[in-house]
Amino acid sequence: MTDTMRFKKGATIIHEGTTGSNAYLILSGSVEVYKKVGDEKLVLSRLVKGNIFGEMSLVDDKPRSATLAALQDTEVRILSRERFESMLEQNPRAVIPLLKQVFQRVRYLNQIVTALCVQSSTCLLYTSQSPRDGETHIVCRLLLENVWGGGGG
Prior knowledge:
Elements: E1 3-7, E2 12-14, E3 22-28, E4 30-37, E5 40-48, E6 52-53, E7 67-70, E8 74-80, H1 81-90, H2 96-118, E9 125-129, E10 136-140, H3 141-147
């Protein structure tokens, strides 16, 4: 059985940095995805009916990467990690729509990074292995210097 939840306009649905194990499908309404950078609110995306969010928590236990708030009264269908794993076992094709949205976001982010790097000759992309968890990080000096004001070093 799938559960639904309703959020009033302005309600926070997910807090950045918290953990969770659910993804959400927007049935009605819209959601804003944002991060706080210092005192600034950096809007990353606006999601509408049919979009899925929180999907990373279905496969890992890392903290949420952004905050999501309802831009208007919003209803969502909840997909738990347990249900997702069951779908993978019983009917793997059922998760294809979710995977398509994830891949679409990766492509979009690749376009953004490419466009930002083309705008600046100071852009340097590199990968490095994190000694703590083995993740590969891609860093764009343009983002560090111009967006967050950090020293690109």
